[in-house]
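Morning!

This is the sequence you dropped in the shared folder:
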Amino acid sequence: MYPKKLGPRCWRHWDAASSPTNRPSAPPANTCSAPQGSPPIVADLRRVSNQQREHRGVAYRGAGQPMERHQKAHWWNMQNPQKADLEPVIEETALEPVKTVEAEVELTPIRKPSATSALNKFKSKRAPGLPGTNSRPDVLDIRRIGELKDYVRVSPLEHHWSEEFCFTAVPIDGQKDSIMHLITEELAEKYLPPKLVLRFQLALASGATKGSFFLCVVPSKNLNNGYNQSARDCCIEGKHRWVMASALKEKNQERYHVNYAEDEDFAPAPDWESMPTVDELLLTKFAGLLSIDTPDHPALLRRRGKRQVAS
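The structure's back. Tokens below.
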């Protein structure tokens, strides 16, 4: 009944490939049929004849050849018409515009800090003046007239001019420039070489800026030096008018040239009467350790290069 090589389970393939004369005239006796309207029993297709396959609508074409996938779907829709008519219905819903809700935000005003409380510690307590000058009448800086490079007036009052004093410049740790110290002539001649001893007068002077007072160095020794003599002449001329000392080093001349202001009233005249005497200014300036009067003074030991004994 079946080819030996194929066997009963390969009937479907053998049925499509064999000739009509070799096919069995009737299906096997143990075939079963599916109820009306139910899907076919695929497991028993190999035992059903061609007529039964066409009657039951089995998904085969021709002589037992399987149908394509789209053909099977068409056959299923023919068997179930009520399901084939169903199509998904998509309802279009109009979207409402999104309403923006404005939140009420309470703005807290920024409180401005008071300038008096926050900036007081940064305020400048010093009036503007020339570099190296000081507007305080008690402590004044010592400057040379050729260093300022600006117009200067010197007090014409006699009590604002000092006698000749002895000074020495002492290097101090942490300071760029040496600090001027008063020293007695006895100690200076005993412990210091002549080059380290400075002798000159001091006179009260003022820059063109109001209140910029300073102590001006008036040379009194070595007047044969061009710088010393021209500087002293400039200080004397400054008693009566605004003067500025400019060095003539570029012209190979070792002296200062005295320049006069074009207008004497270009700056307010200094108030000399309000200033103390030069002796009072010197006592205030060189109070404490700035006056060397003992051999064991720290500044004198530093100038001598002697080890200081810690007390």
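Headline: Residues 142-304 form one domain.

More detail when I'm at my desk.
O.
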